[in-house]
């Protein structure tokens, strides 16, 4: 039987013991063996702290975000084999989708957050700068850097893929190397995904290690700077947290434990209402998804006392319709528990619940293409606790399977009180259309819940469900739920980051943070900052504008244009008792006038105004005052661009407006989209002619089989096609892929060297030569390039077919030619 290998200190290592056999939860057949005996855990931790930390922490947040995306794309292409393994854990296709593609989705989400919101530096400036001296020569701020250590991540058996990727999304993005320790059950699936993550070649050396099997004494070797993330039972978590190596050192510990989550049916949600039907559907889903093996599953069903019978009947009928059996059958809606050991544990807990509460539904015991002897199957079980304020087992004991308990309440006060008797939950839901009931109940139960999910007819179509943690929202909960926090958007990174206060002069803080601080030295140059590409803009680049004297006519005209006739701008007789001496210029006029002073009218790399932040007005500006603007590049944010957008970054500019007395009247931060340098040549005919001057009949190729003249005539043919001479009659790219191909014209990725033309047979030559020699071919090519420029000036709306990219307009043809010319000029070493 195959023994799962562990990946430590950069190599795949097999354990030296007999290991633990792992079984198919559906058929009982052995799948693999997990074994960690003989592994040097101390060496593994040291390898992560040294090699892994050095490589990951030196990357920028932006680059780590790009890394997550590349890994997720690599895994997505191989998802079919993960599903085949997931079925062996007892998971249905729907269960597997949540685990597998939900995990990939978490990587994609964090990649997007990083590329939109995090800096292209290995550190992260957190919060605003604090002015801590009267004259502003002494400032303070905070930076976040990767915690210097390794993170050990101990995961539960219910989500072999998502459980790993959910934790790695934040640790890898934060720059902290990790050792993943999945539960042995289902670890063959974790192992397969992990192998592909390593095989992708995207992750730096030492970033990840994998221990498949028993954890042994790995936690004995944690030390200051390390972290432990644990998902599992609260009892085990508390034991780990109290270990001397963890409690006695500065080791960060995060626990996400199972919890007795509840769902509350509102007093208004009577049978026949949309909310009643939604409630039944939601409870059934949470009882049966993953066979109830979810830390967010509904364990306590809190229902108005007069509706207990209605809910019991409706839920029993709904559960009757849930077919149980082999996940490979299309009819199956609920699979098995992950194994016989877990089945025995759930039965033990069910018997404890029976000691105090009544089992009112035990499900149908029919299985599809499976049997109870070999598989770990269990029918859904519904209990009734008729006195939930007296009988406490329902609030204390969790059967981690398709098991839940009904309990009655009288009013919102009681509903919230019952919700809190779980002593800390990951999630509680309220299903109601009564906003007053929802508001009163939610804030009263919030202190004992990590998330509150409200469902009704208004959001049902787009709701993600009671049991679905989302990457952008915190996952965790107080008390029994572990007191930990995971994900939550960028907040999820803070667990892995060290926050450090930085104090110094404006120049020093600018140098450290790479963010311009008011009062730091400005860098003036003849070139307008808006004429610089994103890569060329430097923090501190500045412009001092000419002055503009504000007139009464400006104030009147702005009032008429904006329709802002606020009395302070228009009625001098109403100013008694105000802060104004006379009619004052609008704040937004000052900002608009400032923009008029600092923008460059000439077309350049600045694409668009992207936003405005932190605008403040400090002193009134009256007619007769003269304003001047100081514009300074404050911060640069690299930006991922999708679709048909020009590759660009965001530059934040500090705008300081002063009056004739050099008093600051307005400060704002404006954001602009600034284009990045294109790696492709410009289509300027003189530029192309100069490049072609280096091409001769003897010029050698870097790749491919073309002769120099064939290459020039090939490019000329492309230009003629873009003029409709001849009009291409067919595009060889399938329709469903065409948009993706056209979008690719806008990015800065070069054409692949080995790109096979889809319209040519392998042995077919490109074109028969039509010019007498290379020089004649060059001249004809340049002549047609001139024609291309004139043609699209005269026919700006023209479109012509391309064999690969479909019908293209002027902009697309220009982009295509730039990429195409560059590709072939590099082929012959001309650029």
Explain how this protein is built.
The chain is α/β, with parallel strands linked by helices and 831 residues long. The chain has a seven-stranded mixed β-sheet with strand order 15-17-18-13-12-19-20, sandwiched between helices. Strands 24, 25, 26, 27, 28, 29 and 30 form a seven-stranded mixed β-sheet that branches. Helix 2 (61-76) packs antiparallel against helix 4 (93-117), helix 4 runs parallel beside helix 5 and helix 9 crosses helix 10. The two termini are 56 Å apart. Keywords: Oxidoreductase.
Write the layout of secondary structure elements.
Elements: E1 6-8, E2 11-13, E3 20-23, E4 30-34, H1 41-57, H2 61-76, H3 79-86, H4 93-117, E5 124-131, E6 139-146, E7 151-154, H5 162-174, E8 178-181, H6 187-199, E9 208-210, E10 227-232, H7 234-241, H8 244-247, E11 252-257, E12 261-265, H9 274-288, E13 298-304, H10 308-320, E14 324-325, H11 340-354, E15 358-361, E16 367-368, E17 381-384, H12 393-396, E18 403-409, H13 412-420, E19 425-431, H14 435-445, E20 449-455, E21 474-475, E22 486-487, E23 497-504, H15 506-513, E24 523-524, E25 541-544, E26 548-549, H16 552-562, H17 567-570, H18 587-598, E27 606-617, E28 626-637, E29 648-658, E30 664-675, H19 685-692, H20 708-722, H21 735-744, H22 774-794, E31 800-802, E32 806-808, H23 810-827
Parallel strand pairs: 7-8, 7-10, 8-9, 10-11, 12-13, 12-19, 13-18, 14-16, 17-18, 19-20, 24-25
Antiparallel strand pairs: 1-2, 3-4, 5-6, 6-23, 15-17, 21-22, 25-28, 26-28, 27-30, 28-29, 29-30, 31-32
Helix pairs in contact: 2-4, 2-5, 3-4, 4-5, 9-10, 13-14, 19-22, 20-22, 20-23
């Amino acid at each position: 039987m195959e023994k799962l290998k562990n990946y430590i200190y950069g190599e795949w290592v097999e354990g030296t013991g007999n290991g633990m056999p792992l079984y198919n939860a559906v058929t009982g057949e052995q799948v693999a063996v997990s074994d960690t005996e003989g592994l040097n855990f101390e060496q593994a931790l040291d390898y992560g702290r040294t090699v892994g930390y050095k490589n990951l922490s030196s990357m920028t947040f932006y680059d780590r975000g790009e890394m997550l995306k590349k890994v997720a794309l690599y895994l997505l292409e191989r998802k079919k084999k993960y599903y085949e393994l997931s079925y062996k854990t007892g998971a249905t296709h729907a269960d597997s989708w949540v685990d597998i593609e939900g995990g990939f989705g978490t990587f994609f989400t964090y990649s997007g957050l990083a590329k939109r919101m995090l800096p292209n530096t290995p550190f992260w400036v957190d919060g605003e700068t604090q002015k801590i001296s009267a004259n502003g020569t002494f400032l303070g701020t905070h930076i976040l850097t990767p915690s210097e250590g390794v993170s050990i991540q101990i995961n539960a058996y219910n989500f072999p893929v998502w459980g790993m990727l959910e934790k790695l999304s934040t640790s890898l993005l934060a720059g902290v190397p990790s050792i993943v320790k999945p539960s042995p059950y289902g670890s063959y699936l974790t192992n397969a995904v992990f192998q592909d993550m390593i095989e992708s070649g995207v992750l730096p050396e030492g970033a990840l290690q994998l221990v498949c099997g028993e954890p042994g004494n790995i936690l004995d070797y944690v030390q200051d700077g390390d972290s432990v993330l644990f998902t599992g039972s609260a009892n085990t978590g508390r034991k780990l947290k109290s270990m001397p190596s963890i409690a006695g050192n500065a080791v960060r510990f995060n626990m996400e434990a199972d919890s007795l989550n509840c769902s509350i049916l509102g007093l208004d949600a009577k049978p026949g209402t949309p909310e009643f039907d939604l409630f039944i559907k939601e409870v059934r889903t949470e009882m049966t998804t993953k066979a109830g093996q979810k830390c967010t599953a509904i364990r306590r069903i809190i229902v108005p006392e007069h509706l207990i019978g209605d809910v019991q009947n409706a839920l029993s009928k709904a559960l009757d319709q849930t077919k149980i059996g082999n996940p490979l059958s299309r009819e199956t809606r609920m699979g098995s528990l992950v194994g016989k050991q877990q089945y025995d544990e759930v039965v033990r807990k069910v018997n404890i619940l029976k000691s105090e509460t009544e089992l009112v539904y035990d499900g149908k015991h029919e299985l599809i293409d499976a049997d109870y002897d070999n598989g770990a199957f269990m029918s859904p079980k519904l209990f009734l606790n008729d006195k939930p304020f007296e009988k406490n087992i329902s609030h204390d004991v969790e059967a981690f399977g398709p098991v839940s308990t009904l309990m009655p309440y009288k009013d919102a006060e009681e509903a919230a009180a019952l919700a809190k008797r779980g002593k800390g939950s990951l999630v509680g839901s309220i299903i109601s259309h009564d906003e007053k009931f929802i508001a009163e109940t939610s804030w009263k139960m919030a202190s004992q819940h990590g998330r509150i999910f409200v469902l009704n007819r208004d959001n049902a179509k787009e709701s993600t469900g009671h049991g679905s943690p989302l990457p952008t929202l915190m996952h965790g909960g107080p008390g029994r739920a572990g007191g930990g926090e995971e994900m939550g958007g960028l907040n999820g990174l803070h667990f892995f980051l060290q926050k450090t206060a930085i104090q110094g002069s404006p120049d020093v803080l600018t140098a450290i943070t790479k963010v311009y601080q008011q009062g730091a030295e400005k860098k003036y140059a003849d070139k307008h900052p808006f004429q610089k590409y994103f890569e060329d803009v430097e923090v501190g680049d500045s412009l001092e504008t000419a002055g503009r004297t504000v007139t009464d006519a400006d104030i009147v005209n702005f009032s008429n244009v904006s329709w802002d006739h606020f009395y302070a701008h228009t009625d001098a007789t109403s100013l008694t008792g105000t802060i104004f001496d006379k009619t004052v210029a609008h704040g937004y006029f000052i900002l608009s006038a400032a923009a008029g002073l600092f923008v460059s009218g000439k077309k350049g790399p600045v694409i668009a105004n992207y936003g405005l932040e932190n605008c403040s007005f400090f002193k009134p500006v009256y007619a007769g005052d003269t304003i001047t603007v100081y514009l300074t590049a404050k911060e640069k944010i690299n930006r991922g661009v999708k679709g048909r957008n020009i590759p660009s970054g965001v530059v934040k500019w500090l705008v300081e407006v002063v009056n004739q007395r050099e008093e600051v009247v307005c400060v704002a931060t404006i954001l602009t989209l600034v284009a990045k340098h294109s790696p492709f040549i410009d289509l300027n005919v003189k530029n192309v002619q100069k490049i072609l001057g280096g091409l001769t009949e003897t010029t050698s190729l870097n790749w491919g089989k073309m002769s120099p003249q064939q290459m020039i005539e090939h490019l000329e043919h492309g230009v003629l096609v873009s003029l409709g001479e001849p009009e291409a009659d067919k595009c060889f790219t399938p329709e469903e892929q065409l948009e993706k191909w056209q979008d690719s014209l806008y990015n800065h990725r070069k054409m692949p060297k080995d790109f096979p033309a889809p319209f040519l047979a392998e042995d077919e030559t490109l074109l028969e030569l039509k010019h007498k020699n290379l020089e004649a071919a060059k001249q004809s090519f340049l002549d047609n390039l001139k024609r291309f420029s004139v043609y699209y000036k005269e026919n700006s709306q023209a479109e012509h077919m391309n064999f690969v990219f479909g019908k293209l307009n002027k902009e697309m043809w220009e982009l295509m030619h730039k990429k195409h010319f560059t590709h072939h000029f590099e082929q012959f070493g001309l650029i």
